[in-house]
């Protein structure tokens, strides 16, 4: 493995966490120091920092267990994986009925991150693939998820004057973006009308967890001539899919 940019402190922290995970409530500072070869003063600093961050908890007998931080991270990881699996299962029906491609994505700061795609057997392929990132303001799914933020939070994500125009229809300013987001909030859905690629429309709706938080979005994309013919069915299928994922997504 390339170690040019390796951070030894992170490796030491991982070794300590691994030991605590394997033997909860059994190891003290001296035990961890002896098992890892990390000197006592460095181990003290590591444990103190991790305790402050809720990575570990020091018990009454000065032994350690993993902290609540890893419960939160673990839940987020497995929830994300479950959501992808659920999408792949439930989107198959929508693809079969509509004959177009469906996608799943989440928002990370100002970017849309594609999580999964269920393709229709058509000669036209979308350029987006799982793992790809796209500026959220230029996409239907991105605008849906941005609409859940406060206006000030949205404006802070993009520097005014730096909006990238993928096509003549792409949002050009914060003011224009906020105007579109107000409409999205009112309608409950968003559209990309040739804003990423000329000749293509995209329709998107949000996925909510059981607390009502919008955690991801689903969309279907197609050439304009297909949208003219299929838009009613497309809206129906996206609504069904978004509702099905929202109702079953784990906490």
UniProtKB/TrEMBL annotation:
TM region positions: none
Domain HTH iclR-type intervals: 7-68
Entries under InterPro entries matching the protein: GAF-like_dom_sf, HTH_MetabolicPath_Reg, Tscrpt_reg_IclR_C, Tscrpt_reg_IclR_N, WH-like_DNA-bd_sf, WH_DNA-bd_sf
SMART domains: HTH_ICLR
Keywords, alphabetical: DNA-binding, Transcription, Transcription regulation
Organism per entry: Paenibacillus plantarum
One Pfam short name: IclR_C
Protein name per its UniProtKB record: Helix-turn-helix domain-containing protein
Presence of the UniProt keyword Transcription regulation in the record: yes
Sequence ranges assigned to domain IclR-ED in this UniProt record: 69-251
